[in-house]
Amino acid sequence: MRKKQGGNMVRVRFAPSPTGLPHVGNIRTALFCWLFARHHNGSFILRVEDTDRERYRPEALDAIMSGLRWLGLDWDEGPQVGGDYAPYFQSQRLEIYHKYARKLVESGSAYYCNCSPERLDKIRNQRLQNGLPPMYDRNCRDKKIESDPTDTDTVIRFKMPLFGKTCFTDELRGEICFENSTFDDIVLIKSDGYPTYHFAVVVDDYLMKISHIMRAEEWIPSAGKHILIYDALGWEAPKFVHLPMILGPDRSKLSKRHGATAITEFEQQGILPEAMFNFLSLLGWSPKDDTEIMNKEELISRFDIDGINTAASVFDFDKLRWMNGEYIRRMTPKQLTARLKPYYEKWGWCTADNPCDDEYLDKVSQAMQERLKVFTDMKELGYYFFTEPTEYDPKGVKKNFKPEVADWLNELANRFDSLSEWDKPNLEQQTRDFANEMDVGAGKVIHPIRLAVSGLRMGPGLFELLEIVGKEKVIARLKRAANWIRENIN
Length: 490
Prior knowledge:
Blueprint: E1 11-14, H1 24-39, E2 43-46, H2 58-71, H3 94-106, E3 110-113, H4 117-129, E4 155-158, E5 165-170, E6 174-179, E7 187-189, H5 197-207, E8 212-216, H6 220-233, E9 239-243, E10 246-247, H7 263-268, H8 273-281, H9 296-302, E11 313-314, H10 317-329, H11 333-346, H12 358-368, H13 377-381, H14 394-400, H15 405-417, H16 424-437, H17 442-454, H18 462-469, H19 471-488
Parallel strand pairs: 1-2, 8-9, 10-11
Antiparallel strand pairs: 3-4, 4-7, 5-6
């Protein structure tokens, strides 16, 4: 009889291998696990699969945990928080794996194999040359080989059934079956004493009482092998939920060639964690209506397995930027300033020697809020609030910087200088009065002013922009642009 894990509590785990920066596909898996656990008042466990010692990178683990925290995915058990099923690093659980591997050997479900790497390579190459999958030839399967601690080639292999089928039920996809003859006698314990993924994941998921295994669909072919290991140990397997793949805009598997793929890169680009959380939640899951903007509490309330799709999801970078812009527009100016200030400091706009006034920054935030999709847009779209333009938009120059405009800008600089109140109404009145005197439409004057002060063709309302930039800087920039036109425009 299979042993049950006990209890009906939802327990899910995110079990990354810290070999590189956290990919958004893996983080999406973590997010779905977290939402499912929180929806059912269950537990979200972080377990570190660090048995590949050659590829293990401590800095990668730091990046993974930092990425989870950035998104607000707190774990109930795992590194730094502990738990009843510690340790949560597989490299610290070797004796546990050895215990159950020996049990499988004793029951006849596994065996020691001392084939040399050279022999295994030879078998592999021969099978590939014959158009066969590179499977082990089971040379040691029926031999009486004992464990020899001095033999660096000895491994423990699982004795796969040679006939029949192995089936399991995926909560999204229904029953999935495999022919046992297609399974290799996989290694359970490697020659270095570390377990393979296939063995460690089964042992840990059972002992940690995981109720649902939520992972990428690429692991479906491995599920049959895992079921057989569960059966051999007399354990009941958890429920399986294989999540849909994430594709790039060209519908190939999402990779670096499509753009940013590590969660840390999106943070650096100025994506809000709450926007990223919302966006990732909709990559493969639907609330069954057209709602797209949802906060964390609403997502927890609405999330369940029934809403997960089986079809692959496309990572739409433009939609992420749009969604991030929606979150930016829901902020107060002060909230936006608080988020932007670290970027200003990074770009050298606000420094200890040249501190920025918070009231000024709030005005900038209010002016730019409708135009930003990500925080880093500010460097291109709003730099002129902090530094003088060093060049002018070429298309703007061609359209708006005519020879006569030099005199216009000088005259406007003088008129603005005479204003006793530097505010939008007065600035607009002076500009429109001047346009009337020149017998031209207001746009013929407004556009050159914008280009002179900001270097750009578009931006927030001109008179709001002028009021914020300030009298002294506006006048200086108008005169500088007038001189530039005289020197460069014939």
